[in-house]
């Protein structure tokens, strides 16, 4: 069932000439998978999805879209959450899944150079052969190009930083109508040879140009990892725990995740195969991870952890109620089950925000009280990377609360974002980047002065229509 | 002895009106200290050096320079090595030393917000009261604004990254003639709210705008540190040592510095108070540092290190000849004495370059052979941060080799830079940034396409004359 109009046949022929007929998808069945991302269905019906296999193809496609007056949308692995890779009706989608043949590891330099369509899992599989890994850790399996476009953070940012902090080179095709190719950076740990233009592509949602190849820094794979789940008497004690761990363990602490009681119960209640480490559900749960090299033994790490935590477990009102320790991935499974648990509980309203570390728990109390008053049907189920102040302030409209009241949900989102940005100086977008799903927040919270300047910078890179996001004043 | 011309009196009056008479320096004696940087005397005679104490003053000065058609040069602590803070005759120098009153530590967030003129030592003194430190470690004591302008790296980049990786907020006065003030970023570990414009100021040498305040990330101060100096039989074994340490110690390895034999002997031979850990001088020396939290004991770390190194010390041709271990800073003192040792040995020709880690030693052999043939009077005395591929490929024209042949020195510099960039794909500027002293390399090695785009970006931020560096095609 073809949905492309006859008048587009000329364009489609040109597309087939560039990438080959099998890499031009136009049937609506074929397109369905390219119209959804990590949040589900979201895109319009593109003119076509094309899958170039090399940089030359990408460059030719940019020229073609300029010729034909088409808007070009770049798409990676469709795991994004901001909608930056989803087309509107009639756009041309360049999907980079097949631009994924090149994977090269330099074990001495601890770097990897890969095509932009290579998935995180494929990169890590190749790196693991050399005892290395790419330390930006996520629940999803995005492409490296998509990770650059969103500047993904994840659970181990506390130790290793975001994509930006681990990025050395970008090969880029500019969205300038000509498909100009640039190599920005070099595969070097130290390199300061002028203003670093590749930074402008990071977090740009594919709207500054098309990343075709990346070089990233790798880290030694830890030989020993230990995870522990800590049941806290009071969420506000979380900073005491963090201080003790950072002071005692220094750089060995590689994750410090928080799970509120509702999110914890949703994961354990709805996802099969998980075992509750605590009963009853404590007021707050922290998952921590310790990673170390081959000189360490897990037992020794466990002893040190027990010693560090002991003072927080003494007395009737000790901050720590209980601790569960794991040498495998069982506790991470609970953390990773939270999103699924929420979806199983009802309709999820997701807000990817960040605060200073000291303000997370105060914000949490504050905004929960406001939602309880203003939108009582909506139940906060928050969790997040609280070691770096990142908070998935997600709420659930429970299945048994009747149909979702869209206006009430919008009210709740406005309460959450206004409170975090205007009252707490926090971020309306911590690690999912900017796309159609949150561009209204960008326009609302980023100053006109900064947007104007950003728009001017964007036009230098992408003077012709390209991407879904205008960072300027529109 | 005033050197300012009578015709400038009107300008000087206006300057005094903005920053106060005591903060406008015009006498050549007063100006002398502002005409030299980390490489010594280098600047011309500015019209004046003015020292604003707040952002309003900086903004007013930008407006004044635009009115008067003066070129504005921003200066921090005068510790830079690329000359970006040095004026030419008649420029107006804005020195930020007195913009240094604000120092605020958020211990829970592990961040510091400070005025741009605050020195690294002052920041670290304030952070230490909370058990924290700013991990970009340098021999000099620059201002934070200067560190941003150069994107300094240093000895612990291997673990903590450069300034860019630890930067959260910049308050900037744009060099746009109007002195527009911008706050770019937020004091958050996770924050992705569009294209990150503050990245354009990093490594810009003060030529994109004037940084007036910064927020940076802090790290927990290690409770235990151990340094060891390793004598290698063969410089090419350095990667074997690095692999063993990174695999065994993981994130505990915080420095991995290399010192060639000539640099080693220069430090020990010329700087008083140092004790040679080895005799005779080995073919190559590595200084390594291990840092850990309060859960560790130095003795335990030393045992682990000994165990890791033991296999490399066995047999007649073992890679490691000898190891010296230190629980204080004695071994670092040798490393830090190297620049002084070189200066005492003769005239230093300094090249701040970087390579992939695997290529450092091959490059070193290669270029040393070429210099021995082409400029035999010049003796390589290289050292560097070889754990991150950074190499101070410095040469000495010995005191007893007669007067320096400037043409021969230029030949040697061309050999070094051409070899590192064109043959090895390395960097002509690893961590000292771009300034008048190396702008010719920028123009030589950065592609016209990238320079053109960078120049256009620069003009958006700094449309009127400002700073010493034009990143465009000039």
TrEMBL record, chains A, B:
Keywords of this entry: FAD, Flavoprotein, Oxidoreductase
Species of the source: Sphingomonas hengshuiensis
UniProt-listed PROSITE patterns: FAD_PCMH
Keyword Transmembrane found: no
Cofactor: FAD
Annotated ranges, domain FAD-binding PCMH-type: 42-221
Top-level taxon of the source organism: Bacteria
Protein name: FAD-binding PCMH-type domain-containing protein
Presence of keyword Thylakoid: no
């Amino acid at each position: 069932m073809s949905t492309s109009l006859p008048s587009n046949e000329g364009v489609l022929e040109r597309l087939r000439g560039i990438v080959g007929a099998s890499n031009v998808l136009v049937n609506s069945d074929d397109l369905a998978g390219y119209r959804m991302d990590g949040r589900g269905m979201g895109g319009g019906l593109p003119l076509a999805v094309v899958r170039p296999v090399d940089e030359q193809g990408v460059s030719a496609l940019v020229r073609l879209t300029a010729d034909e007056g088409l808007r070009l949308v770049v798409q990676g692995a469709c795991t994004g959450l901001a909608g930056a890779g989803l087309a509107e009706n009639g756009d041309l989608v360049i999907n980079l899944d097949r631009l994924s043949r090149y994977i090269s590891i330099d074990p001495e330099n601890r770097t990897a150079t890969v095509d932009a369509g290579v998935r995180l899992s494929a990169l890590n599989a190749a790196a693991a052969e050399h005892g290395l890994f790419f330390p930006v850790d996520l629940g999803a399996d995005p492409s490296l190009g998509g990770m650059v476009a969103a500047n993904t953070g994840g659970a181990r940012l506390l130790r290793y930083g975001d994509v930006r902090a681990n990025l050395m080179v970008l090969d880029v095709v500019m969205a300038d109508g000509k498909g100009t190719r640039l190599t920005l950076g070099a595969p070097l740990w130290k390199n300061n040879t002028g203003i670093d233009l590749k930074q402008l592509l990071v977090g740009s949602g594919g709207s500054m140009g098309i990343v075709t190849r990346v070089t990233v820094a790798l880290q030694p794979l830890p030989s020993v990892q230990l995870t522990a789940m800590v049941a806290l008497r009071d969420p506000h004690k979380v900073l005491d725990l963090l201080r003790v761990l950072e002071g005692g363990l220094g750089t060995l602490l590689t994750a410090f995740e928080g799970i509120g009681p509702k999110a914890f119960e949703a994961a354990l209640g709805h996802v099969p195969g998980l075992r509750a480490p605590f009963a009853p559900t404590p007021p707050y749960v922290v998952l921590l991870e310790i990673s170390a090299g081959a000189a360490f033994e897990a037992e020794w790490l466990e002893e040190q952890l027990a010693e560090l935590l002991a003072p927080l477990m003494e007395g009737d009102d000790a901050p720590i109620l209980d601790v569960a320790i794991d040498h495998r991935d069982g506790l991470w499974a609970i953390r990773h089950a939270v999103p699924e648990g929420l979806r199983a509980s009802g309709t999820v309203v997701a807000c990817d925000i960040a605060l200073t570390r000291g303000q997370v728990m105060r914000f949490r109390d504050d905004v929960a009280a406001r939602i309880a008053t203003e939108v009582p049907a909506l139940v906060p189920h928050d969790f997040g990377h609280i070691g770096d102040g990142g908070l998935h302030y997600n709420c659930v409209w429970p299945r048994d609360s009747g149909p979702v009241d869209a206006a009430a949900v919008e009210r709740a989102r406005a309460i959450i974002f206004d409170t975090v940005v205007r009252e707490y100086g926090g971020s309306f977008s911590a690690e999912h980047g900017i796309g159609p799903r949150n561009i209204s927040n960008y326009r609302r919270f980023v100053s006109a002065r900064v947007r104007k300047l950003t728009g001017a910078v964007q036009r230098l890179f992408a003077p012709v229509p390209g991407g879904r996001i205008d960072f300027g004043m529109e």
